[in-house]
Specification:
It comes from Paenibacillus allorhizoplanae. InterPro entries: MetI-like, MetI-like_sf. The protein is mainly α. The chain is globular, with a radius of gyration of 24 Å.
Length: 279
């Protein structure tokens, strides 16, 4: 049987698979589509879920008029950017050193980092709240950033350690022959090659910071220092069952994450599989 005949026989199978995957994609997209459609409905239309919206933008106007949306967005962006910068800085250097050294002390250090991932956050809420009072950092965004840094470094170190094992050592040896020091070699040669791992950490941790509800609720005053998630919670409490504006504020809080994922999804996939076949 020739190659062309095999390809011709497989075409119907490929077509069926494509249809199945298309249907599955639409099923996954349905909640997002419904979220956007519901944000355009008037209150009376919510009891007809399959009815198409009339592109009513009054719900969005209520959100901008009745909430401090830009303040909450600014607080959330501050938390994400500061925490990501520190996490990537510390985790990349720690992962580089641990991944390049096979000595048992460095392996022990790696397990020390990983131990930070197995401690449930619920067990440390009360001590951390007490610590916040002792440090006089009530409702401080900086304090919340420090908590996120402590929780994110173990995960970031694990990702970078696995990825660095797939980077050839010959690059560092060549840089060393040219007179580059360890620090310069890392930032000018190795770190740019860690872009997939950095993209993975960026996407996964931003989703965590952006959607976290418990930590901002415990350590911040949601009336004066809201994040987007606590703002949605407060807005829902104030609005009751007025679903139109509630869906609208959810759309506004979701859009940045969708845009971020669309631009970084290839790095997310590469980062997850990197280091799986080497090391």
């Amino acid at each position: 049987m020739t190659q062309s005949s095999l390809t011709a026989r497989r075409k119907p199978v490929f077509f069926v698979l494509e249809v199945i995957l298309l249907v599955m994609a639409l099923l996954y997209l349905f909640p997002v589509i419904y979220l956007f459609a519901a944000s355009m409905k008037k209150s009376a239309e919510f009891y007809e879920p399959l009815k198409l919206p009339h592109w009513y933008f009054g719900n969005y106007a209520k959100v901008f008029e009745q909430t401090h949306l830009f303040q909450a967005l600014g607080n959330t962006l501050y938390i994400c950017l500061v925490t990501l910068a520190i996490n990537i800085l510390v985790s990349s250097m720690a992962g580089y050193i641990i991944g390049r050294n096979q000595h048992r002390y460095f392996q022990l250090l790696f397990y020390v980092f990983l131990s930070g991932m197995i401690i449930p956050i619920q067990t440390s809420m009360v001590p951390l709240f007490k610590l916040q009072q002792i440090l006089h950092m009530q409702s401080s965004l900086t304090y919340l950033c420090l908590l996120y840094v402590a929780g994110g470094i173990p995960y970031g170190t694990m990702v970078y350690t696995g990825f660095i094992k797939s980077v050839p050592r010959e690059l560092e040896e060549s840089a060393s022959i040219d007179g580059a020091g360890r620090f310069r070699t890392f930032w000018l040669i190795i770190f740019p090659l860690l872009l997939p791992a950095t993209g993975t950490i960026l996407v996964t941790t931003v989703f965590w910071y952006w959607n976290d509800f418990i930590s901002p609720l415990l350590y911040l005053d949601i009336n004066h220092t809201p994040t987007l998630i606590t703002l949605i919670f407060k807005f829902k409490v104030d609005r009751g069952v007025d679903w139109g504006p509630i869906f609208s504020i959810c759309v506004l809080a979701t859009l940045p994450l969708i845009v971020l994922f669309l631009f970084t999804q290839k790095y997310l996939i590469k980062g997850f599989v990197a280091g799986a076949v080497k090391g």
